Amino acid sequence: MDLQRHVLLFPGESAELPEAIHDLAVRCRTNTQLRVLLSDAAAVIRQELAAAASPCSDHPYRGEGEVISDFEDIAELAEWHAEQRCPSLVIEMALLVTFQIAQALMLAEVDGSILHAEGVIPIGFGPGLVAAAVVTAAGSSSELATLGLEGIRASVRLALVLSQTGRNIEDRAGAWSRVVSGLATQDVEAWLAETNAGLHPLGHAYIGQSLGDKTVVFGPPSTLGRLDRVDLTTRPALALALPDSPACAPLYGPHLPPVDTSHIVGTSGRGGLLGRSSLRRPLWSSHRALEPIPKNKTLAAALCLAVSQIAHRRSQIDQTIDAAVAHLQGAAGPEGTAAVTLHVMGPACFASPLRHELEKKGHTVHLGPRMTLPEPFGDADGDEDGVASVSRHEVAVVGMAGRFPESDTLDEFWHLLESGQTTHREIPPSRFHVDDFYDPTRATHNALLARHGCFIRKPGHFDHRLFNISPREALQMDPVQRMLLMATYEALEMAGYSPRPGADGRSPRPSSPPRIATYFGQTVDDWKTINDQQGIDTHYLPAVNRSFAPGRIGHYFQWAGGFYSIDTGCSSSATALCLAREALASG
Fold first, then answer.
1. Could you give the CA distance from residue 208 to residue 215 in angstroms, rounded to a whole number?
2. Phi and psi (nearest 5°) for 162?
3. In percent, how much of the chain has pLDDT > 90?
4. What is the pLDDT of residues 449-484, one digit of tens each?
5. In the beta sheet, which residues pair with residue 518?
6. N or C terminus: which one in the chain shows less Cβ crowding within 10 Å?
7. What are phi and psi of 19, to 5 degrees?
8. Distance (Å) of CA 131 to CA 10, 119, 513, 541
9. DSSP string, 211-247
């Protein structure tokens, strides 16, 4: 019987990060634990970036002005990264580790044995080693989510350190790595020795990663520029231009200044959460292929090793693959074979070299299952009881409020309906003197023909200070606008909504407001007619114009979505509700 083994691969980079993060953003709509992880991860990243960006903080790497910390969520940060609004190793590494921990979390929810079974072999490459260490120490999906935040924090701090190191060496824009193909590693080393002649040691180009006949060379942009000036008669393989690799800061450099692992891993390291958690199995690293990080080492110590290796040791992918194949062969025995399932926390193509080597030895290799996206964003082949069965029209109402006849709250309105009472009564004197307008004979032009109606208790009650509106403007505002503001505030309270905090964790109004839209149905504006009759004042236009009603909502709550005033007669509110639902369903 074949030996059963699972191999978890954590690549050091991914060209598909924005798409991968978008995939997670879709999945988290139906996965509470994933949604909490992504939300908490965004808070951790925001906190670390804000601390580094503040010129007043005592952060050892403060002044990271180009790092944007005021993003709404992980998906928006990935969009900025894709649009190159913040091309940064910090953002790339934070997104990579967040994605890999989230991938492992979803895998653990499907098969919990991935976290604690003996036959699991985790292998970390480059920055993926941070996520690999966290997953190796976690015993459950909830523990993985908790420890994952510390791994994300460590990745951000490490990237901040390396970015600062890069600027100290050479403060100019440009790629810090290039891919060399067609040369053996020893030939590349000899070539780099010639290129580095006469340069300061920190300005040297060096090999950071190797796989087959492809070698990734790191170095300052100016030094890498010298690689273009090569004697093609001695090295014809370099006739083609050397493509840039995506690195924008130095990595894997043994000559780089040592990093402060205690600062990067954080205060929760030795005696805290990370100190209480230990690796549940050996952790394979591409930076020390023949010497895995041993089982039972604390997660704090493992992260310190990972951080140091990412900063200062070459990633030897070839040797790591050979070591993993030899380990599996040894476990299966001289004549035995293993059934290996490869789970890649990234693009599936990254598993190809290991899969090829394992199949050469006669082992059976399968790729772990790829989960389909929930409807309506993915395939329709999902489980009948799973998220694929959720209709795109199923929208949850999480907050309600309103003003009703003789009822200022939903509870009062419900009790009114339960009791079966009618609110129909004679027009009260607080509105107007009905005898001045009532004429059942119809002899008077435009006279009232009825003396009764249904009325709101206190239509004039409005907290103008809460909404930063002057008393003079409040008096001129259409009562519909006043009640809309009050009822919206109450509905958001019921929903548990609060403005997203700013980068400092306290400011309720960040410069990048949430994308929330307002749909409002209104078909009459009697207050405008009254103003026309009694004389308009300074605030006449915003006080009576229909479009200003939903606009006031967006302005007060600092929402960046659209605001829509909809008039379709008696169906205005129903139409607004349908349009809002369709906007939500379309994503």
1. 8
2. -70, -35
3. 36
4. 899 999 988 888 899 999 999 999 888 888 889 999
5. 563
6. N
7. -65, -40
8. 7, 19, 31, 57
9. ETTEEEEE--HHHHHHTTS--TTT-GGG-S--PBPS-
With 70 as the cut, is the pLDDT of residue 515 above it?
yes
List the Cα angle 383/384/390 in 5-degree steps: 100
DSSP string, 318-336: HHHHHHHHHHHHHHH-SS-
| Sign of the CA dihedral running 368, 371, 372, 373 | negative
Q: Are 527 and 483 in contact (CB under 8 A)?
A: no
118 phi/psi in degrees, rounded to 5 = -70, -30
In the structure encoding, which two tokens stand for residue 360, read together? 């050469």
Separation of alpha carbons 248 and 33, rounded Å: 33
Q: Is residue 397 a contact partner of residue 391, using CB atoms and an 8 Å limit?
A: no
pTM, two decimal places: 0.68
Q: Report DSSP letters for 80-128, one per residue.
A: HHHTTSS--HHHHHHHHHHHHHHHHHHHHHH-THHHH-TTEEEEE-TTH
The values of phi and psi at residue 161, to 5°, are -65, -45
Neighbours of 140 (CB within 10 A): 12
What is the DSSP code (8-state) at residue 179? E
Token code pair at residue 6 = 């699972």
Distance, in Å, from the CA atom of 547 to the CA atom of 554, rounded to the nearest integer, reads 11
Report yes or no: 45 and 77 within 8 Å, Cβ to Cβ: yes
